[in-house]
């Protein structure tokens, strides 16, 4: 089974993103931290990961680097509430296929998911 993994430390964000993606026909799993995401990916790699940049403990950029190394076929979209050129540049350099700034609309997210599907 192929799925999209949503990684965000905020429960409300994970929940509404999961509802959007499920309504679009995606199978969705969620993780509250980078470590929880790695545990899920170890069991079964996601097709696409939507990952928050800023999280307690390990941040999204360190998770991105690990995912690119261990699961190169997983397309990663980074999401953040803070638009920072260095973070965008680093995430692209580290292999993210997309970058969205919170709050983002449904259409922007849908476009990022479509690009991720194409990149895979």
Number of helices: 5
How much of the residues is beta strand, in percent? 15-25%
Average pLDDT, rounded to a whole number, is 91
- The separation of the N and C termini measures 16 Å
What is the element string, with H for helices and E for strands? EHEHEHEHEH
What does the main sheet amount to? 5 strands, parallel
The rough form would be described as globular
Strand order of the largest sheet: 2-1-3-4-5
Number of strands: 5
Task: Give the helix/strand class.
Answer: alpha/beta
- Low-pLDDT ranges: none
Helical content, roughly? 40-55%
- Whole-angstrom Rg: 13 Å
Describe the structure.
The chain has 120 residues and is of the alpha/beta class. It has helices at residues 11-23, 34-43, 60-70, 85-93, 106-119, and strands at 4-7, 28-31, 48-52, 75-80, 98-101. Strands 2-1-3-4-5 form a five-stranded parallel beta sheet, with helices on both faces. The two termini are 16 Å apart.
Give me the secondary-structure topology:
Layout (H helix, E strand, L loop, with lengths): L3 E4 L3 H13 L4 E4 L2 H10 L4 E5 L7 H11 L4 E6 L4 H9 L4 E4 L4 H14 L1
Parallel strand pairs: 1-2, 1-3, 3-4, 4-5
List keywords for this structure.
single chain; 5 helices; 120 residues; alpha/beta; 5 strands; five-stranded parallel beta sheet
